[in-house]
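Quick look at the format.
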Amino acid sequence: MGLEQRGRADQGQTDANPSGKERRAGPQQKVKSFGIPKRLVFRAWEKVRANNGAPGVDAVSIEEFGARERDNPYRLWNRMSSGSYFPGPVRAVEIPKGHGTGVRVLGVPNTADRVAQTAAAMLLEEKLEPIFHPDSYGYRPGRSAHGALAVTRRRCWKQDWVLDLDVQKFFDSVPHDLLLKAVAHHTDERWVLLYIQRWLLARIERDCFAGAANSGQQHGPAGVADASVQCQTELVEHVATADQQRRGYAEGGSERVGHSTL
């Protein structure tokens, strides 16, 4: 009796698996260092686009960034996920203060950096919003200085005195290590901590010269980062205010907007 002929594994398609050659596996997809959802970055871009705003040092406007909407958000996500994202320098803009008391230096990040910062802020807001003090109004969704003034107006009828205070040069002098430690207490997302640190150390460029900031400082002017770093600053102030409330120092209520308290 002759040998029974068995069917070929390639079902007769010799070109699919040439004789004498093993089938090679396809290219392995590289694993990203950080698990950042693509949708998060795209939602952040949509939020930045809706808010508009001036371009940063690279002069790329919202319209120019959006002209390549299929590519730019993806490229940003790819760099952030792989850990190779480094923010560009921040454009320093001087805003005159009221009553001729000097100028306030505000930082304008590049459009791509604004998207990255907004993505981190959106992720953190989900965890931080429930624990913010009810009298905190700065840099929070649905809140503003107008709301703080409305509450102050009502409380003025119940209290005989008002204390108005402001932390001078707070954004310039806040200790970065303490700020990062406070953020790390509420999130274990390594990419958030890494990029906040890089944003805080971003170089500053003025129109007249590059690499300088207030008081000779080269990093972190007032408003240097977008909502993310400001959100972290609010977290630090929230801890301090909550401690005051527990100690009974602010029993009459205190409204905060950024580093100003009334």
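Next, a different chain entirely:
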Amino acid sequence: MAESNVVHLPSTGWSYLGGIGDTWKNLVSMLGTWKDKTVSQEPIIELLDAARLDALYRANWVCRKVIDLPAFDTTRAWRQWSANEEQIEKLEECERKHGLQRKLMSALIKARLYGGSAMILGLDGCGDFNEELDIDDVGQDALKFVHVVSGGRRQMITAGAKVLDITSPYFGEPSYYMRSNIPTPPPPGNVDPPEQFTMSTQGATLFIHPSRVVRLVGYEYPDIELSLDPWGDSVLQPVFDAARAAGAVSSSVAAMVQECKIDIIKMKGLSELMSTRAGAQKVLDRYSNSNMAKSVVNTLLLDVEEEYERHEMHFASLDKVMTLFLLVCAAAADIPATRLLGREPAGMNATGEGDLRNYYDRLSADQEVRLTPALNRLDEVLIRSTFGERDPDIHYTWRPLWQMSDEEKSQIELRKAQAFLIDVNTGVVDPMALKRGRENNLIESGFLYPGIDAAIEEAEKAGDDENVEEQGMPNLFGQKPGGDPGMTEGQKGGGAQPFGGGGGGGGSGGLQPPQPK
């Protein structure tokens, strides 16, 4: 029989394939073999239940910020509808009526903490909760409420078996949701009971079709088909070890502070005195009085046979140790330390803007990739409930999370103005189209002239902008096509160039554009 290249190792159950492996091995140093302690390490998962998740969220500041910050940052700028002004006002009013911004943030917090949450849509005139929602049945003012409940580990709403039919549009979602419709006891003192939208008998078990629920998850399972439930993992699950280690270091440092200064006094016959109650009391009285009299200006009185020492503990590097463990928490949560810890960025000339930009870019991508598809069910109901029908031209975009400074906004507006002036000088674009485009640009920006949209509308009604094409460019921009404002007749002789400058040598005449820094 041919010799095998498998080395049978004692008791550990490991085998070594000579020259074959997915990591480095060295038979001389025995690294990567059964004698290497790291080889015996196995990954394990310590699942956090609802009680431990609640304790971490309520008692540990790092865990709470890990949950709250991304949910708050994702929803704080909210979204911008693309429609006419009247439609936008109605959609935003409907969002405010149902508190969608706040409720989405609450749903994200619950999903990140417990691994899942559900936004239940209450619709009037669209069938019962247990019936599949026909989106075409949603009429005006059909949306009555949007309620947020915890799923995942907390299970304030029970999810049914997963839909594993590959042909179903609900693949991977629960086949149903179940919730006990808890009755509200009547308030005392003749107080009017709160208004209730009864779509089911109070106290009865309420079954809800998945088409009436917006499901949000924390961290998705590797494979939803092999998972035990249709939710996800808590965001604290992979952060727990780092947060626990950081907490242990912080507690250890706090305990060390209690012993940062210790006074030591040596005396002859201490053991003999401490052996009796009376002797121990004499020792305590002796050094209590001595310690009470000791101060910056008073003298410590000692017997000739007594020795006094002071041991002090130094904390020169403990701040670096604590910072290191907190940085590991920030890395595990995928949140910049400047945002999670509120600390100044380290390093010469460091501002932390790069880290924050990457963080906001990741949240923006998450909005588009995960959040927008999840909210599609709610948005379709919202639009139909607002207008009674679906206008295909209505859509929205998420507002940018990174807020530019006034100086950055000024530089952008300056470049836009320069480009506009070049288009004016060339005369390629129709003057009226160019004017309307510039107006829209200023209205969308809102930085230079707040409220300019209302001012333009009032001016048009007053007839201040009548028959623009007949008046020509001088009345629009104060110059002729191809000429520069402020250019003299002598300067125009060399040929009009955008922003001035004579022909030939490119003289200094005419309007020179300001140069952005």
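Residues 353-387 form the longest helix (35 residues).

See the schema section for token definitions.
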